[in-house]
Amino acid sequence: MKKAVITAIGLAAFSLSALADVSVKDAWVRGTTPAQKATGAFMELTSSEAAVLLSAGSPAAGVVEIHTMKMEDGVMKMRAIPKLDLPAGKGIRLAPGGNHIMLMELKQQLKKGEVVPITLKIEGKDKKVQTVEVKAEVRDLAQPATMDHGHKH
Fold this sequence. Notes:
With about 150 residues, this protein is mainly β. The protein has one helix at about 1-15, and strands at about 20-30, 40-45, 50-55, 60-70, 75-80, 85, 90-95, 100-105, 115-125, 130-140.
């Protein structure tokens, strides 16, 4: 009996360590005007093991989707995607003009300096789903479409 309990505890500890360790850097949301009902959230995600971003949610929005932007027939088009692969050890940047999280049906204006909570659902290679809580700072509505790289042009 003791051996069975010890084995069960060991398996539980092993399954916990099997979850991918996902780090989030530079999470931010573009501010909005009072009438605006949608905006983008941006960040860099790095997973210790191969994983998949399945979905995102936020109390600030009625609908939250993972989006991609691609040039099609000379026109930049945005569309929802069902998931986003997170290769092991590689930083995946969610940025303006590329993959990002779209916050739609906003419940109120998002103003510079506020913080928007975002919950990411991430599936590891073992098919277990974990949540990652993100606090994204609202940046100025006029934030340039490129990531800030530390100097003015």
